[in-house]
Amino acid sequence: MSTDGLKAQVVFATITGNNEAVADNLVEILTDKGLQVTKSEISQTEPEELADYDVAFLVPYTYDEGSLPEEGLDYFDDLADVDLPELTYGIAGSGDTFYEEYYCMALDKFDKQIQKTGAKRAGELVRINLYPSPKDKERLTALVDAVLKEAQ
Known about the structure:
By secondary structure, this protein is of the alpha/beta class. It has helices at 18-32, 73-79, 105-115, 134-151; strands spanning 7-12, 36-41, 55-59, 88-95, 120-121, 126-129. Belongs to the flavodoxin family.
């Protein structure tokens, strides 16, 4: 799988640091595969920037009973207005299984929102309980592989 010249953006939101760890894992995996990677915090990022990338990974956390990250609400709202038919994306993020039916619900909401852009999702949503484990890194690697395969 040739990744020469492919550019990736990893957009994350975090309070506890768990999701930044998920984002850092993705950056490491992508970098190891030879991609140019930009990591950015969601409140410091505009959805239009995604048009400059071949692949993207959204890494939102779920707050309380299924709420989106407050600092990511503008990004979420603006995302629906961007046209990204060339983009392939994956979604991963941490949550807390304590919240049962609300566990990682923001991932589903971001998935529905970015689909409005015409972007193509590859791989399954990767739901991580709290801090990413070595097993979670394997799942993130599988997600990256699926996204890169689809982007070829």
